[in-house]
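Contributing: when you submit paired examples, paste them exactly as shown. First protein:
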Amino acid sequence: MNNEQEHKLEQRIRFVAKHYEEGRLDTDKAWQKFAGKHQVRRTVSFRRYWMAAASVLLLLIGFGTYFITERNSPEWVAVTTEPGQIMEVYLPDSTLISMAGNSSIRYDKKAYGKERRVVEMKGKAFFQVTRNEARPFSVYTERTEVTVLGTSFQIDEQPEGTDVDVMTGKVSFGVTGSETDKVILTAGMSASYSMESKGITILEEEDLNTLSWKTRQLRFNDTPLEKVVSDLSEYYQVNIINKAETPNLKLTATFNDLPLEDVLLVINQTLDTRLAPDTNK
């Protein structure tokens, strides 16, 4: 370093020494400190904003899901009868259901009557449906379905099949889920679905005692003894046998809410039979 260079360096040192204040010229440190403070604050504010927004969004989604689920979830009304019990149930549209013993029905209170009127059932029941052409009435059993506009009919669901008897109006009776296996029944007609054949058969003979459980009346009009015994067994819920050999006998009689002993006494004296409850069962 020559004399001239040494002189210039000395002048610069004196200038810095004269004007320097501690920390005043450390601009990098000051900037980093400033930027660091603002970076932290902005990041915290940004995170807090997103946490708040996410919380509100989750809350809205939760409430929305709850209300949608609650609005669409069924509100079932169910009725069940004990063996031997008879119960009448009115639906919201004034349709009357008379339930036999050991039967059950249910319907969705929220959905019933909005577009359709749907009832699920097991056992035996008689329906007197309030007419509404805009809202068909349907009854679903485990295997079959009946659809009407306004009529009266009975459904009897048994393990071996399902019977439908129409008293007034017209009904569609079919296998659940099938568009082709259906029949149209009018007043006085009956049909039966068989679990064995998986098909529906229209019954030709009228059953006088279809509603005996409801009317408490048993009617026979030149009825074969075998059918008489079958009807009595079903009505009184006891197995009845004939201890005498009396083939080809027929009965014409009406019994109004009588005990079994009185009915058997009349039949045995009239036809010279020996009908009695089967004590072995």
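Second protein:
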Amino acid sequence: MEGRMVGIYFEGRQIILPGAYATTKVEAFNIQRPPLFKRLAVIAPAQGGVPRGFTRITSGSEAARVLRGGVGLALVDLALDPSREMPGAGEILFYRVNAAVPASLDMGNLRLEARPEHAGIYSNGFRAKRELHPDGYYLLWVEDPASGVLEESPPLGPALELIYYGSGTPSAQVSTDSEGQKHLILQGGAPYENHDILIGGSGIKSIQELADFLNGTSVWGARVLHKHHLYDPGGFPNGALTFSGGRAVLDLGLSAQLQWLKASTLVNATATGGTDTATGMGWLYFTGGNEGPPVTLGDYEAALTALEAEDVQAVVVGSPDPAVQAMAVAHCEYMSHPKQRKERIFFGGPGLELNAQAQKEAAIALARELQSERAVIVGTPVRRRNLRTGQVDDLPPLHVAAMLAGMWCAARPEVPLTNKTIYAQGLTYRYSQVDLEDFLKEGVVPIAQDPEQGTYIIVQGLTTWRKDTNPMRRKLQGVSIRDYLTRKLRLYTKKFVGAVGDATTVESILNAVETALAEEVRGGRNPEGVLTTGTGPDGEPEPAYKNITAVFDGIELVAVEFEAHPVGEVAYITVTAFLTPTRIVRSA
């Protein structure tokens, strides 16, 4: 038998004993973000959201509830609802750049502080109260009146009634050993009635579990009081218990309040070691909440550093400062390098200027400073009705850029933003055709009114790239297609990393690339895709892609190369009519 296989191998193990064996495969539940999906990052001050942290937002109602106000909410609103022709961003990763301070309340032995997502002036409206019931338990209320959220505690404190059924004189005490582990030490009338029970820490984890244990002993029993079943018995204070009629009560004291407050959506709580000053005083209001110091360039730098770890494809900042926007463009260029594998585009623009000429000059100056295929700069402000206030506001180009970012995130990569409409009620400043051409020559995206339809359109989707006229760099659509293909090809080939480097694997990699490209060829049966067939210089049909090669260097690198033809953008249409005379002859 030596050298021969016995039985079978299943899931990496040898099985010799005959029988039925089964396993389950759950790899299909590993949801990968598809290359089509584009998520927008908005970095701005707001009146809600975690200070200097990220908050995920997917709807306008969620944005209003979480962000509450400020530039951040305005930008998110615009990105979510930019147009009546195209949808907005499906998901926004919001970073609250201002270091807002949460309001707090000192209750003597307990300090309540608004949770980070509520930090700022808003949390000054929070209130709390604490009452002591005649039966010896406490009641706590924490409320956010503005949103109608009220958290009301169950009776807190007395958590477990300890019962002794033996004939001796019982004693019990809670103590903490040198390693910080709590013990409940019970003594009865005989040695077998004595118990040293570990509670909390590495011991029993809940009051209910402790009660079950005690009820399983010979002479001890227990009953959970009120609703403390899931509370941690490690919160019992040290000390001896007083028995009366064979019964004693274990009281969690302040620990019960702290444990209940752990589940609060409004506040965090800490024990202060002080004396209770709040019980019976009615509603007490929080104080000290503020929006933090003025936001600095360093704050935006920290936000962009934090954003490096996130999966986003577009970036908007809440400051018109050219230094901030230059930093954001540099971030996008860095993250878009093949080494980083996180392609991104920045959407920005100047603030609102006093007149049309100043506005034009500010936009062109910004575009010249931010020359990059990774930057889209909007140059013209618009008038738009604020759906929350009902007022028509003049939106600076920076805010209009958030609208374009939202539209871009929702669109397929081959769909240009050129000639797409935005939701607006007017233009703050009107520009001539010469002005609009000046914007485009400088890589600035203007908004104009369609003379026939009366709608407000994106004249052309451009980046600020000006080193040459390469449309795959200068046009937003070109950059979008490149990024999309890059992400898709990574997705289709990364599963081979770590595979055996042989002819079969190299062939599989080549086939994976060909499959990815074939899916992108537009045609009658595939109306969506970023590649197109054409006509070669010789007049013969040209395939959408060709000359795919995969070369393994024999050590660790498989290099894949191919040629492909991306779709373009119809930006200009010329119609030439050749008019010629014709004879007219009549006869009777």
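If you have annotations for the second protein, write them as plain sentences, like these:
The chain has a mean pLDDT of 94.
The two ends are 114 Å apart (CA to CA).
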